[in-house]
């Protein structure tokens, strides 16, 4: 049996597909994963930076935070962040059940969104500060889970 026939049989594909074609598909999948992962990480950094810039600026009364850019950009960034996260889940094939690090990370993202909303729009300075602290704790938990992949 030829090498390409063994590879084709092992991959359960017709022998007309060469190992070069299979290797090309693997490289394409890997490059797609790397592009998605780096895009996701960049969007995380931008999202967190925008959140804390908006929060701190609103706390000190800075007027630039009321500009249209700061009202629209976070929604665009967070939508792209969500899209890359979902694409990564499908690319890698992670399962959300049974409960694992990814499930907990998604729960922390939801908690971060809620806390961030309260921090930006809540009534009372004390309530906004507590919500911002909760958002920061959620971010640290998300980063821990993303780096360690342990729960």
Structural notes for this entry:
The protein is 79% helix and 0% strand. With 151 residues, it is an all-alpha fold. The chain has a domain of 105 residues. Helix 2 runs antiparallel to helix 3 and helix 4 runs antiparallel to helix 5. The longest helix is centred in the first third of the chain and has 42 residues. The protein starts with a helix and ends with a helix. Pfam families: SirB. Keywords: Membrane, Transmembrane, Transmembrane helix.
Sheet/helix structural class? mainly alpha
- Average pLDDT metric: 84
Distance between the termini: 46 Å
| Number of DSSP E strands | 0
Q: Specify the number of helices.
A: 5
Main sheet record: none
List the SSEs and their pairings:
Blueprint: H1 3-10, H2 19-60, H3 68-92, H4 101-121, H5 125-148
Helix pairs in contact: 2-3, 4-5
Question: What attributes does this structure have?
Answer:
151 residues; mainly alpha; 79% helix; 0% strand; transmembrane helix
Summary of the model, kept short:
The protein is mostly helical and 151 residues long. It has five helices and no strands. The chain has a domain at 44-148.
């Amino acid at each position: 049996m030829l090498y390409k026939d063994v590879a084709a049989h092992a991959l359960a594909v017709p022998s007309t597909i060469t190992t070069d074609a299979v290797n090309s598909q693997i490289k394409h999948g890997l490059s797609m994963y790397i592009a998605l992962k780096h895009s996701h990480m960049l969007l995380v950094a931008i999202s967190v930076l925008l959140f804390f810039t908006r929060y701190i600026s609103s706390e000190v009364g800075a007027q630039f935070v009321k500009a249209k850019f700061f009202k629209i950009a976070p929604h665009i960034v967070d939508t792209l962040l969500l899209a890359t996260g979902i694409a990564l889940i499908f690319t890698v094939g992670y399962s959300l059940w049974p409960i694992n690090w990814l499930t907990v990370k998604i729960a922390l993202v939801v908690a971060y969104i809620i806390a961030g909303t309260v921090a930006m729009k809540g009534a009372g300075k004390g309530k906004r500060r507590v919500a911002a602290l909760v958002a920061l704790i959620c971010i640290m938990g998300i980063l821990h889970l993303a780096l360690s992949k342990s729960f």
